[in-house]
Design a protein that fits this description.
This protein has four helices and four strands. The chain is of the alpha/beta class. The protein has one domain: Rossmann fold, CATH 3.40.50.450.
């Protein structure tokens, strides 16, 4: 007896979503200096019937989590890994803002490496355009 091939790890969330009938999931990417714009994008995407995941921490504003530089770097590393997980979960990425920094550029490259469509609120900042 043979079994069908198992999906690759990055395919498993997509298969589960298809089976459960979940609406499309969009991950919002961009610098946390654009948190206001991200919240607006969240509202619009949600109103359009999509599940939205986005950065939950504003690393640009002062906070006790970032008061110790060593701990701040560890928090940033954990948040970067968490954001990559959100990209894997999502069906597509929406890049918010008129500036693309190193972290956002890495997120875009990662999403595209997984075959995820990437949209931009400001298409002129697409690093691959």
């Amino acid at each position: 007896m043979s079994y069908p091939p198992q999906p690759a790890p990055e395919q498993k969330p997509a298969e589960a979503k298809k089976l459960s009938g979940l609406p499309p999931i969009v991950v919002i990417c961009g610098s946390t200096r654009f948190m206001t714009e991200m919240n607006e994008a969240d509202l619009r995407e949600t109103a359009a019937g999509r599940i939205v995941v986005k950065p939950g921490c504003d690393m640009k504003s002062p906070h006790a989590l970032r008061s110790d530089p060593v701990e701040a770097e560890a928090v940033k590393a954990r948040l970067d890994e968490l954001h990559r997980a959100k990209i894997r979960l999502a069906d597509e990425a929406l890049v918010v803002g008129d500036h693309i920094g190193d972290s956002t550029r890495a997120g875009i490259a990662y999403a595209r490496s997984l075959g995820k469509p990437v949209r931009f609120t400001h298409p002129e900042v697409d690093p691959d355009a």
